[in-house]
Every structure is written in C-alpha cells, then in structure tokens.
Design brief:
transmembrane, transport, mainly alpha, cell membrane, 207 residues
Length: 207
C-alpha cells in the first residue's frame, strides 16, 4: 500500500502541474477570443487559423484539466441519496464508480482515439477550412487528456482503498476548501437573509 500511495502522490503532482499550467490557457483563450472579435467587428475580416486556435485551446483546457478537476473533487456529483449514507458506504460507492464506470470509459476512449490521432499525424491532416490549422495536435489532446484522467482515477481509487483500510484520510476531503457551488449557495443564502431582514425591518417601520 505504501508503494501505491507513493504512486498516487506522484500522479497527483503531475495533474497538479498540468492543472496549474492549463489555467494560463484560460487567459490565452480570452485574449485570442477578444482579438478575434475586435478584428471581425473593426476590420470586417477574420482568420480561420485564429478561430481554430480558439477552439483548440478550449479543447485543451477541457481535456487536460479533467484529471486536475478530479484531484480537486470538483466534478459534478449527484449525491442526494449518497450523502445520507455512512462515510464508508460513500467511499465504497466511489470505488465502484471508478472501477466500473470511470476507468473503463476513459480507457475505451483512449483506445479508440489513438488510431485517429496516428492516422491524422501520418497523413499530416489539415483543416478543411481555408487557412486553417493542422489537425493532429488537437486530436492528440484526446488520448492525452483521458490518460491524465485515468491516472487521476487510479490515484483516487488508491486513496479510497487506503481510507477503507484505515491508512489514509477521506480522499474527498483532501485539500478541499469550499467549492464554487458551495460558495455560490452561501452567497445566495446571505442575499436571501439580507432581503428577509430588510423586508422585516420595513414592515416594522411601517407599523
């Protein structure tokens, strides 16, 4: 188990590095998107290469950050029922979900997408749009992104098993602050309380 946990930490560091690098792509996408919009509106022209670059970068963010998102426990979970179960039962659900759903689906997509990338690379596939970009780099993102997600899934599985064996903390709580959804819910609750207090105050003032 110690060796597996060491492997898990190594995978986590890899996905953490990739995730932090990908965050900068968000800024690049914003700049490219804004530049495309300005050029189109001001100069009444556009470039297929720059438009496709915008799509490629968006795909890179989505695919390469999937493993990082799993590491941070930010993937959407429908846990209305699960949250009422015991902690160990919830971890068992995590284990079954990773083994029977996450890993098989990701491995299948990797297996199916690799020949597509190889064919694109060998034939030096180009965009069908005039002035577009070469296609194989964006097709390479698919197997690479799902490979990172598979590694993140294995890391999560190891941490779940370690927890069940009493050799590790709950992996769902690891390095977790409040999620964006939790912060939004709290903000909505505060606004509702403020409106209720204001309405109550105006009612008392009217009396």
């Amino acid at each position: 188990m110690n060796a597996l946990l060491a492997f898990s930490r190594l995978v986590d560091r890899l996905n953490l590095l990739v995730g932090k690098a990908v965050t900068w792509l968000t800024l690049v996408v914003v700049v490219v998107s804004a530049g495309n919009a300005v050029v189109r509106k001001v100069f009444h022209t556009s470039s297929n290469a720059w438009l496709e670059l915008q799509w490629y970068l968006f795909g890179a963010i989505f695919l390469l950050a999937a493993g990082y998102t799993l590491l941070k426990n930010e993937h959407v979970r429908v846990d209305i029922v699960a949250q009422k179960l015991s902690q160990r039962t919830q971890i068992w659900i995590e284990v079954l979900g990773v083994v029977f759903f996450l890993l098989p689906a990701c491995v299948l997509i990797m297996w199916l997408s690799w020949p597509v990338f190889v064919d694109s690379f060998v034939t030096d596939e180009q965009s069908s749009n005039p002035g577009g970009l070469v296609r194989w780099p964006v097709k390479l993102l698919i197997p690479v992104g799902f490979c990172l997600l598979v590694l993140a899934g294995l890391s999560h599985l190891i941490k779940c098993v370690a927890f069940l064996m009493g050799k590790g903390p709950d992996p769902r709580e690891r390095d977790r602050g409040k999620s964006a959804e939790e912060e939004l819910a709290e903000e909505i609750a505060r606004e509702a309380q403020a409106r209720e207090a204001a309405a109550h105050g105006s009612t008392q003032g009217g009396r």
